[in-house]
Design brief:
Mean pLDDT: 93
Shape: globular
Distance between the termini: 11 Å
Low-confidence stretches: none
Radius of gyration: 22 Å
CATH superfamily of the largest domain: 2-enoyl-CoA Hydratase, Chain A, domain 1
Number of helices: 13
Number of domains: 2
CATH topology of the largest domain: 2-enoyl-CoA Hydratase, Chain A, domain 1
CATH class of the largest domain: Alpha Beta
Number of strands: 10
Length: 327
Amino acid sequence: MIIATKDSALGMGGPAMVEGGGLGVFRPEEIGPIKVMQENGTIDVLAEDEADAVRLARQYLSYFQGPLADWTCEDQRHLRHVIPENRLRVYDIRKLIALLADTGSVLELRPRFGRAMVTAFIRIEGRPLGLIANNPHHLGGAIDSDASDKAARFMQLCEAFDIPILSLSDTPGNMVVPEAEKTGLIRHCSRLFVIVANLTVPIFSVILRKSYGLGAIAMTGGSYQASMFAVAWPTGEFGGMGLEGSVKLGYRNELAAIEDPHARKAKFDEMVAAAYARGKAMARGTSPSLDDVIDPAETRRWVLAGLKAQPPIPPRTGKKLAWIDSW
């Protein structure tokens, strides 16, 4: 865990070492400036000053020391209005997390890195949880290499300290396109699958909206059944890939055969609407893949029930994991 103050600079070597190695002459602030180290994922949390850094360190350590007796939370009915009725409109996932968690209990790690994913420690009725959530404000929530690395390492941390994981899923799947593949996406996204498949801590999965493709499977522990529970809000939608894309690809010839562009667009919209109806949470809730479709205001109750259902963890005499990835 790296906490840095705003006036920090981090690097493997300072100006003297760089110059001594014949690599050029630089000012101290040019080597590992705070903005760069935030965006490349080196820094977990940015503090205002040293006093704030001490406060954040204490908050961080508190999640590994058990539940708190005193807690408050926002009126959970507000969660019903966070996600817009128009499925094409974006929303603020951090606002949703702040409403869901105990007041003042959210500590987000690496917020400027892997922006398609939010990783944070939170509390529900005083009990600590690790949270992963897709961020629809970046790449529509698609999971790219950085987001995979960020979530994978965070889940290792939760596993090492027996902290259950809450997954808030709203993703069109793993990122695609040639530029994304240049980042080694196949291996980075596979890292997320490998780690999530070997967790012993429970995963509580809540599908907020989109649950498409392999990215959705990674967010639920390898399958919907792999989670201790998998529930969806009424805004949830499911499919092998994005609805618009699946219609364009699956019915390409049929649509191309319609010469009138207005009629073609009308037919496309009709097909998308039909696909959306088939994949809506209320329709999917009748299948074994989901445990229930819930009122958003009931999310905390589900999470708390999941936490209370866990058997007590016996005292450990050594490390659960020999090590955690540094990245």
